[in-house]
Stage V sporulation protein AE
Amino acid sequence: MDYLMAFIIGGVICVIGQILMDKTSLTPARVVVSFVTIGVILGAFNIYGFLVKIGGAGATVPITGFGYSLAKSTMKEVNSGGILGAFTGGIKGTAGGIGAAILFGYIMALIFNPKTKG
């Protein structure tokens, strides 16, 4: 059942993004920024936490999960370290994921020799 719920939650998030790109004049970059912002807002009100509870990785893997992670770690850091946590919480909470993305992106660039479009 966990796999099914992850598939449904993640699929709905992706379908919403695809519909926004196909049916509106929004560019993919604006959709991504909107999704991160929506993840932060829903995370701040603990609405996204409910999606994570029922959808697991289906909610945390899409880009909205990054926004949720930013909000969650910032709130945790503010509660433990004061107002300075508003500036350091998001960085501390997402540093591992960002570092891994950079490392693996670099490794793939070395292996596959990327080319520019055009």
